[in-house]
Structure formats: structure tokens, C-alpha cells
């Protein structure tokens, strides 16, 4: 047997040590959960034919019986057994065990079993606990699962796993089973029970079945992944030692922020995510994807491609994947879904080797992309692509990419923890671990620190007896939080040591980054200042490939890679999707098109009829016109109604862009603008109002306190972890409380916050994956007329028409936490239901970050011709205001006026957003004059509010009066309630900021209420 086979067999045995349906058969199946599906699958894999190693049956008769029964080598079994112990201890609280007497062949013996009050028959009361909030979800409200036939469930589980393995066998019927492929197949697809198999009985619950019915806050799949990770590390290390490897690549923000086009922003984030995958792939190829604990890789499209194309898993297994269906860049493959860091369980002896291999791999991969970029540029410019004929740009690319990205890593071996009782992995000596942690915490000699100083560890580090109940002493898995914390602190220290490699750069710099010289075929051209450059590589590109460089742009290596990455990846995605054209339809909605999106939607809603003048223009300029990309929702809503109208809609912004160009006379441009305006105005009641919307919006959202969430630590007076007691099943909570009432130590233990665990990282990563890959795009592009630029983890960057900004912001905030109070207890008609920390979309159940998780959002409304770099600066500033001035869990909106000046509003989520929308709708309603806003602003001076000493009556009366006098009788009924709500919110602001806040609130609402926004007042007419 080869060593590599031993690794994959060990990991497979670990994946099969517990059946997936354990929660549904526990305490119901007389055969016991381990003797059901798990044993049957082990036999199916042929483990019973492997034989056994020589073992000392005198010293471990029980182990011998188990080894022969399971049919795997004793050394492999020991690895799996130890991995199971560690995984359970890392993810679950310590459990009280009850001393009992059993009769064996040797006579009566004392042993321990789970205390009766801590035993849960989960099917009688199926409860899931959200791991981040402790919120309980009782699935038994409609009868529970007690009526399910456990024999039927076992059969379906076995058939599901067997079908996956048989798919591999059908792929190569004449060859023995490939252990590596078998592991990858079960890791990826075992958690997905097909609809044809479950007959509607289990559905999405299959993915969430708990590993332990007493602590139903993590799934059986999480436990199997972690057990497999530990077992693989043990098997691959000569000393059986595992280590935690933390690794990050970067820098992040400088790389993404250098952008002049929307495509640049997407390309930077997506390219960084791709580099992250290339880093993770090194570990995946060596140890399997379950070795990576954070982020969760299961279901990530780029990982699926690797499984199908590199690992050669059967392609028909991926048929139902979302990424295998879309042929535009709305495909999940185009999402920046992976963070720039990972945490993995690795063999301790291989940690350094793996980290260095990651560094080589990501840099070599980027160098390869750089070489391709130079070839593409030279070919597009009509120059020789051979490096010997045109050596300069190749040399520049190599030199400028050298040392990028930076790779930082730290590894902490679990061998710092010594189990004095090696057989049971208990009686822990943490002296070395404590010594290693002390410098990072600044603790004195002999003083415990970090997790070792917590009351929970102090209480349970030794066996605790309470009558006939015992809390067993922990094994090394319990110290996962200490090992992880040490690895993170060591990684942070490693980042402070940034090696600097000097690179000589001469001549003029890149026009985007300003850091390196621009790529050239002749170094003498680098001395030419802007305006004097002729016949350069970039002037040729600007003339022949304007999508790659605008006129005057001259880019260095990294900016050039970013600029061409959309083209290169679209080509790669086309091959992956096996399109005949080997290309994916890639589109970026322009700011001009986004500004017009709502008007185009209204026009299409009314039939999309063109005026005769417009039809003549389309025919006259048909050679110059390229249809622009339209928002996805607009195309989905109208594609089945009138295909020709959609084509016309895509040409209207193109005509306006043509009118703004340099190659057309002013009279022709004026005629084009008038024809487009009249066409879009034809659906309005006032067809004489032919103004066009010229403003669009950008949105940037970021999860709050992500570091605290990942660490499970308290921050700014708030706990980011639930207590041990709150993670228990309600039945266990009841028994626990009875014992805690009698024993202070037990009560104290239950009140402690749960220590950091791999399950926590898996839960967060899984939630962020589903949020960014699935939910965000649905909200932005299916529920609204927006365009998602990127979504990675807790970060969202999107472009929207102004009319959709407020509802999209609030909806994304609700989606992040997985709760929309307006649809409590029912399904949302928009297709996405958010409730209790979960999201349901198209029948798919996804766990979000939870009801206590918060996010902050910055938004900018700007003219479509405003420089993107300036708008981006305002957007970043708005997000920071939301986090700092708003105190997080807030939003901040900036309106950048075309004529100069800006409006800024910062507030909390919830009522302020709803009131802003309601006041906007009131001011925009028929029969209401926006003078209500203007008159109100006139008597709001900069000295004091007309509400002395916090008295709200006068302020409310004045607001109601101004709103009412500018409204007709039908709308005036809303004036008083709006004034009351506005007064309440105003008086909640700091006293010295109330006037500015109220002025900004009313001004923003008035701006949003305008049917169209041109320059800032009456509008621009052709």
C-alpha cells in the first residue's frame, strides 16, 4: 500500500466513522449508529479486506475487537479514533458522565455513560441552535420527526453514498477504486441529498443534521470534515503530530483601490480571490480540501472546477450546480468569493514546506498571467510577441511582479500540549503551550494567559467529580482556541516584518498607480512626458483595444494585469463552461446606463415604442452603435415581452454616449439627445418633461466587527460568543440548570462564553459564502435594477439606480443577518425569505450570520460623469462615517452635486431608512409640492431648534404645518404622522448636531423625491 493511499484511506475511514443520519437514528436503532450505514459503507469500500496490523490484544482487547470488526489496520484506527476525540472536544463542551456498573465476561465492571438528563432523542424534539446567536429553531412544531422510519432513512443514506461511489466506478469500470477521488466525492456531494432520493421528507435539513443531539449548533458534516482533517494530519506526520497553519496573502486594499473603471474594481477583488484559491489549492492537493477549516470550500465554484477538471470527478455530478448553468458574468464563477487568508490543519512536520510551496505557487502563477498579459498586449498592438524579439515588456513584467503577492504565515503544533495518558489523550500538560503564548500576551513567568486563563479551562482542566457525575478531563482538542490564538498572534507578528526588495524604476510612472514605470517596448520612450508620447505600446492599445486602455493611459505591470483580467477570466470561464466560443458574455453596466435604468424600465413597461426620429437615428448610426449592457433585472423582466424593445433599450444609452463623443457635431449631438429624451418621455403623463436622469448610486457594505466574530471575543462591551448553556438542546438545558442550582462550579461553567472552535469558523465561512455567492446577487440584480461589482465574504460593492438605493441597502442589511421582521412567520413574495438567522431562496436553506450580526453601509449618489476615483473616495469616507459616527450598524449617504457641494446623512438602520423612504414618497406624490422641504429648511437656522429643552410639540407642529400646507387633501393625512416620526428621530440625535441632521435628512429626502435628477435644479434640456 502506498503512503498516499494510506492518507486517503485514513481520511475516508474518518469520514465514515459516524453516519450522516446519526441524529435521526440515535437512541432508536437497536444496532447503534456506528453499526448501521457507517459499517455498511466501510465494507462497500473494501476496508474489511485490508487486514490488520499486529496489535497487543492483551493490553487493548476492546481496541482489537473494534479493529477486526471494522476491518482497518490498527494504526489507522488509532488515528481515526484520536481524530474523533479531538474533533469532538474542539467543537463541543465537556459533558457530564454518569458512573454505572456493567456485566462483562470478566464480571462486573464500573464504567461511565452519558448522564441520563443529557441524553436527547432528537427526533422527538428536533431543535437546531444557531451557533453564532444561540437562537433556537424548533422543527417539531408541525409534528417533529418522530414518525420518520429510521430504517428507511438508513437505506436512503446508504444508497446516496453508494450512488456517489458507483459514479466513480462507472467512470473507470476496469480500475480499482481511486481512494483520492472517493474522498473528494464524498466530501463535496454527500451533504447534498438529491430530491429524487429524499422524496421531500428531509430536504434541506439533510445539510444541517446535528453532529451531537445535545449541542445541535453544528452539523454532522462539520464534525466529519474536522475528524478527516485531524486524521489526515496524524497519518501524514511521522510523529503523528498536527499543527494549525494560518496564512495570508496581500496587500489587499492598495491592490484593489487602484482603479479608474468599474471593471478595475471588480478585477482587483476577483484576481485577489483567485490568488487566494491558488494558495489554498496547494493544501487541497496535498491533504484534501477538508484540511482547510477557514474558509469553507465546499460549493465554492472555483473549487468545483478544480474537482471536475483537475481531480477528474464525474462531470455529471456538477450538472445541477448554479455555476454550470449561467453563460454571462452573473455566473457565480465571477464572484470574488474567497478571503485572502486561510486556516488549515496540517502535519506538523510539513507546515513550513507547505507554506513555502504556497508562496512559490502564487508567485509563479501570477508571473504566468503576467507573461500572458504581455503577449496579449503585443498581439493587440500588432507587434512581435516573441520574448527574444520584444524583450523589454517581458523583463518589466517579471521585475515588477517579483515578490508579489506578499505571503505571511505561522504554524503552531499541537505537540506543545502533552497528554500524560497517551491512550486516552487526557491529563494534559500545557507548560510548553503556556510558555509559547506568554510573550504574545505580555504575561509574567508562570502566569496563565489567553484561553488558559479562562474560568472554563481552570474549572475543567482536571477531572471534576460531583457525586456520581463526572466531567472528564479534556483532550488536546479542547485547546484548539489556545492554539488558534497563538497562531493568529504569531501571524500578526510575522506581518510586521515586511521584507523590502528594492526595484529600480526609471522614467515616467504608471498613470494609474504612480508607483512603477509603464510597460514599453523601448525604454527611451519612458522619458517622454504625457502629451508627447506617440507610437507607444499603449497608444496602439488605446486605438485598437479601448477597453484595455483609454487615450493617454500608460500602465505598469499590476494595473495591466488587472485591466486584462476580465478578458482573460472570461475566456477561462468559457472553456470551463465548455462553450463552443470558449468565451462568456461579459458585461459591465456603465454609470450612464445605470442612471437611466429606472427610466428604461418604465419605458419598457409601457411597450418600449421608439419615435420615428429615433428609428432613423438607429439606422443612420448602426455601424457606430454597440448595444450597451443592461441591468439583469431589466432584462429578466422584459425579455419575454419584446425582444426588439430590449435591443432598442440597449442602444439608447449608446446613442447618448455617441452624442458626447468627439467625432460628432454639436447640432447632430443635440438632435440625438432630443430624440432619446422624447422617446423615454413618451410614457410619462407630462410628455413635455423630457429630462433624463443623470445620477446613479454606489453602495459599499461591510460586516461589523468581523475580527471579533471570528475570534469569538468580547469587544466594546459586547459578547460575540454564546454561553455554553445557550448552545445546549433545551432538554439538556433543563437538566443542566437543575444540577447548576446545586453546584456553583457547574453554574459558572454554563455561564462561560463558548470557546473558539472550528465549527464557529465553518459556520461563519459558510454563512458568508452563501451570502456573497447567492443572496447578494439575488437582492441587487433580481430584486432591484442594480449591478453587483463584487461580493466577497462580508463585503458588498454594487451600483444601483437612485430610486433603488434605499430599499436595496435595507434589504442587504437584513439578508446579512438573515432576518426581515416584515415577513416574520411567512414566505417573502420576492422569493428570498429571511427569518431567524436563515435565508430560503428557491427551496435552498442557508444559514446567515444571525440576528445579532450587524453591518454598516456607505452610499454615494453622483453624476454619471463624475470622476470614478473621486466618487470612490467619497464612498469609502461614507462607509467609515457609518462605522465611526454612526457607531456601526448604520448607514451613511453622500450626495455629490454636479455643481459642487455635498449632502451627508448618517443614521441607524430600521426606522430612519423607512422614514427616509416614506418622506421621499410623500414629497414625490401627486398633489404634493417639494416646496414643503424648501420652506422647512428656511426656518431651520443654525442656532437652535424650535423645540426648547427637548420639547417635541413645537417642532412637530411646525414640521406638520409645512408638510400639510404643500399637500392636497388626499396626501395631507400623512403629514402629521411623518412630522411626529421625524421629530422623534431628530431628538434622538446629539443636541449640538440636531439642526444639521434634520436639514440633511430633509434635503436628502427631497433630492431622492425628484422624478429625475439632472444637474441639480430644473434640469438639462437638449
Task: Characterise this structure.
With 1022 residues, the chain is an alpha+beta fold. Among the domains are: 3-104 and 122-236, no CATH class; 591-696, no CATH class; 913-1022, no CATH class. Helix content is 45%, strand content 12%. The protein is built from 35 helices and 21 strands. It starts with a helix and ends in a 13-residue tail after the last helix. The relative contact order is 0.08.
Query: Looking across the biggest beta sheet, what order are the strands in?
Result: 14-15-13-19-20-21
Q: What is the distance, rounded to the nearest whole angstrom, between the alpha carbons of the first and last residues?
A: 80 Å
Per DSSP, the total helix count is 35
Basic shape: globular
Estimated share of beta-strand residues: 5-15%
Main beta sheet: strand number and arrangement? 6 strands, mixed
Domain Cas10/Cmr2 second palm: 695-891
Protein name: CRISPR-associated protein, Cmr2 family
Keywords: Antiviral defense, Nucleotide-binding
Pfam families: Cas10-Cmr2_palm2 (PF22335), Cmr2_N (PF12469)
Amino acid at each position: 500500500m502506498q503512503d498516499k493511499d494510506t492518507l486517503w484511506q485514513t481520511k475516508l475511514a474518518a469520514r465514515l466513522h459516524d453516519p450522516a443520519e446519526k441524529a435521526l437514528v440515535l437512541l432508536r436503532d437497536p444496532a447503534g449508529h456506528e453499526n448501521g450505514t457507517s459499517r455498511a459503507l466501510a465494507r462497500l469500500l473494501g476496508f474489511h479486506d485490508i487486514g490488520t496490523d499486529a496489535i497487543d490484544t492483551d493490553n487493548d482487547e476492546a481496541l482489537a475487537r473494534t479493529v477486526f470488526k471494522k476491518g482497518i489496520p490498527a494504526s489507522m484506527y488509532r488515528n481515526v479514533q484520536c481524530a474523533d476525540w479531538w474533533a469532538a472536544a474542539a467543537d463541543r463542551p465537556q459533558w457530564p458522565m454518569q458512573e454505572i456498573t456493567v456485566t462483562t465476561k470478566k464480571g462486573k465492571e464500573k464504567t461511565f455513560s452519558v448522564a441520563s438528563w443529557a441524553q436527547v432523542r432528537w427526533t422527538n424534539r428536533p431543535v437546531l441552535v444557531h451557533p453564532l446567536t444561540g437562537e433556537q429553531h424548533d422543527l417539531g412544531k408541525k409534528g417533529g420527526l418522530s414518525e420518520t422510519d429510521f430504517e428507511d432513512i438508513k437505506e436512503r443514506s446508504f444508497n446516496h453514498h453508494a450512488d456517489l461511489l458507483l459514479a466513480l466506478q462507472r467512470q473507470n469500470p476496469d480500475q480499482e477504486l481511486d481512494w483520492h477521488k472517493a474522498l473528494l466525492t464524498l466530501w463535496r456531494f454527500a451533504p447534498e441529498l438529491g430530491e429524487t432520493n429524499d422524496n421531500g421528507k428531509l430536504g434541506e435539513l439533510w445539510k444541517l443534521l446535528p453532529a451531537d443531539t445535545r449541542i445541535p449548533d453544528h452539523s454532522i458534516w462539520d464534525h466529519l470534515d474536522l475528524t478527516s482533517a485531524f486524521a489526515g494530519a496524524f497519518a501524514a506526520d511521522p510523529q503523528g503530530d498536527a499543527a494549525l497553519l494560518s496564512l495570508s496573502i496581500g496587500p489587499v486594499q492598495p491592490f484593489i483601490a487602484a482603479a479608474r473603471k468599474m471593471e478595475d474594481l471588480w478585477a482587483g477583488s476577483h484576481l485577489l480571490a483567485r490568488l487566494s484559491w491558488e494558495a489554498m489549492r496547494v493544501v487541497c492537493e496535498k491533504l484534501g480540501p477538508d484540511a482547510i477549516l477557514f474558509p469553507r470550500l465546499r460549493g465554492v465554484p472555483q473549487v468545483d472546477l478544480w474537482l471536475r477538471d483537475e481531480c477528474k470527478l464525474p462531470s455529471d455530478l456538477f450538472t445541477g450546480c448554479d455555476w454550470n448553468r449561467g453563460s454571462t458574468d452573473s455566473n457565480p464563477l465571477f464572484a470574488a468569493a474567497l478571503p485572502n487568508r486561510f486556516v488549515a490543519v496540517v502535519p506538523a512536520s510539513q507546515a513550513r514546506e507547505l507554506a513555502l510551496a504556497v508562496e512559490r505557487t502564487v508567485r509563479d502563477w501570477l508571473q504566468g498571467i503576467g507573461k500572458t498579459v504581455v503577449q496579449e498586449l503585443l498581439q493587440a498592438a500588432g507587434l512581435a510577441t516573441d520574448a527574444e524579439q520584444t524583450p523589454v515588456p517581458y523583463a518589466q513584467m517579471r521585475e515588477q511582479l517579483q515578490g508579489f503577492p506578499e505571503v505571511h504565515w505561522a504554524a503552531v503544533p499541537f505537540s506543545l500540549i502533552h497528554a500524560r495518558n497517551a491512550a486516552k489523550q487526557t491529563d494534559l500538560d500545557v507548560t510548553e503551550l503556556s510558555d509559547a503564548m506568554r510573550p504574545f500576551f505580555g504575561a509574567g513567568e508562570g502566569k496563565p494567559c489567553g484561553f488558559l486563563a479562562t474560568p472554563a479551562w481552570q474549572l475543567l482542566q482536571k477531572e471534576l467529580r460531583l457525586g456520581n457525575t463526572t466531567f472528564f478531563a479534556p483532550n488536546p482538542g479542547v485547546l484548539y482556541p489556545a492554539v488558534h490564538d497563538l497562531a493568529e498572534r504569531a501571524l500578526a507578528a510575522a506581518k510586521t516584518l515586511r521584507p523590502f526588495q528594492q526595484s529600480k524604476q526609471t522614467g515616467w510612472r504608471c498613470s494609474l498607480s504612480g508607483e512603477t514605470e509603464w510597460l514599453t517596448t523601448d525604454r527611451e520612450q519612458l522619458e517622454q512626458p504625457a502629451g508627447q508620447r506617440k507610437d507607444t505600446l499603449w497608444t496602439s492599445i488605446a486605438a485598437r483595444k479601448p477597453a484595455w486602455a483609454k487615450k493617454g493611459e500608460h500602465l505598469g505591470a499590476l494595473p495591466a494585469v488587472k485591466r486584462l483580467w476580465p478578458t482573460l477570466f472570461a475566456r477561462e470561464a468559457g472553456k470551463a463552461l465548455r462553450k463552443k466560443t470558449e468565451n462568456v458574455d461579459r458585461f459591465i453596466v456603465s454609470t450612464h446606463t445605470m442612471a437611466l435604468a429606472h427610466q428604461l424600465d418604465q419605458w419598457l413597461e409601457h411597450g418600449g415604442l421608439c419615435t420615428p426620429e429615433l428609428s432613423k437615428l438607429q439606422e443612420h448610426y448602426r455601424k457606430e452603435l454597440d448595444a450597451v449592457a443592461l441591468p439583469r433585472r431589466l432584462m429578466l423582466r422584459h425579455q419575454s415581452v419584446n425582444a426588439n424593445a430590449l435591443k432598442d433599450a440597449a442602444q439608447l444609452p449608446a446613442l447618448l454616449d455617441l452624442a458626447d463623443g468627439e467625432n460628432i457635431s454639436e447640432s447632430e449631438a443635440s438632435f440625438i439627445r432630443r430624440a432619446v429624451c422624447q422617446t423615454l418621455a413618451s410614457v410619462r403623463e407630462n410628455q413635455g418633461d423630457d429630462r433624463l436622469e443623470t445620477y446613479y448610486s454606489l453602495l459599499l457594505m461591510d460586516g461589523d466587527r468581523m475580527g471579533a466574530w471570528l475570534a469569538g471575543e468580547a469587544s466594546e462591551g459586547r459578547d460575540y460568543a454564546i454561553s455554553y448553556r445557550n448552545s445546549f438542546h433545551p432538554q439538556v438545558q433543563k437538566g443542566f440548570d437543575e444540577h447548576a442550582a446545586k453546584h456553583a462550579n457547574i453554574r459558572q461553567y454554563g455561564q462561560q462564553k463558548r470557546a473558539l472552535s472550528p465549527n464557529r469558523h465553518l459556520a461563519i465561512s459558510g454563512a458568508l459564502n452563501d451570502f456573497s455567492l447567492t443572496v447578494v446577487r439575488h437582492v441587487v440584480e433580481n430584486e432591484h435594477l442594480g449591478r453587483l461589482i463584487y461580493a466577497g465574504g462580508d463585503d458588498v460593492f454594487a451600483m444601483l439606480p437612485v430610486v433603488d438605493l434605499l430599499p436595496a441597502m435595507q434589504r442587504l442589511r437584513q439578508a446579512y443577518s438573515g432576518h426581515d421582521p416584515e415577513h416574520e412567520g411567512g414566505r417573502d413574495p420576492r422569493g428570498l425569505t429571511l427569518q431567524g438567522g436563515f435565508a430560503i431562496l428557491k427551496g435552498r436553506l442557508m444559514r446567515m450570520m444571525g440576528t445579532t450580526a450587524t453591518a454598516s453601509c456607505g452610499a454615494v449618489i453622483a453624476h454619471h460623469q463624475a470622476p470614478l476615483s473621486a466618487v470612490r473616495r467619497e464612498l469609502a469616507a461614507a462607509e467609515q462615517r457609518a462605522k465611526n459616527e454612526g457607531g456601526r450598524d448604520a448607514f451613511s449617504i453622500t450626495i455629490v452635486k454636479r455643481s459642487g457641494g455635498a449632502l451627508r446623512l448618517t443614521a441607524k438602520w430600521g426606522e430612519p431608512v423607512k422614514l427616509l423612504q416614506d418622506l421621499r414618497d410623500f414629497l414625490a406624490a401627486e398633489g404634493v409640492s417639494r416646496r414643503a422641504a424648501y420652506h422647512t429648511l428656511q426656518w431651520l437656522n443654525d442656532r437652535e431648534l424650535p423645540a426648547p429643552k427637548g420639547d417635541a410639540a413645537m417642532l412637530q407642529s411646525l414640521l406638520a404645518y409645512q408638510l400639510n400646507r404643500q399637500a392636497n387633501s388626499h396626501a395631507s393625512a400623512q403629514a402629521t404622522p411623518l412630522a411626529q416620526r421625524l421629530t422623534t428621530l431628530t431628538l434622538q440625535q446629539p443636541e449640538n448636531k440636531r439642526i444639521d441632521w434634520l436639514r440633511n435628512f430633509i434635503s436628502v429626502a427631497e433630492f431622492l423625491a425628484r422624478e429625475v435628477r439632472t444637474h441639480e435644479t430644473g434640469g438639462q434640456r437638449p
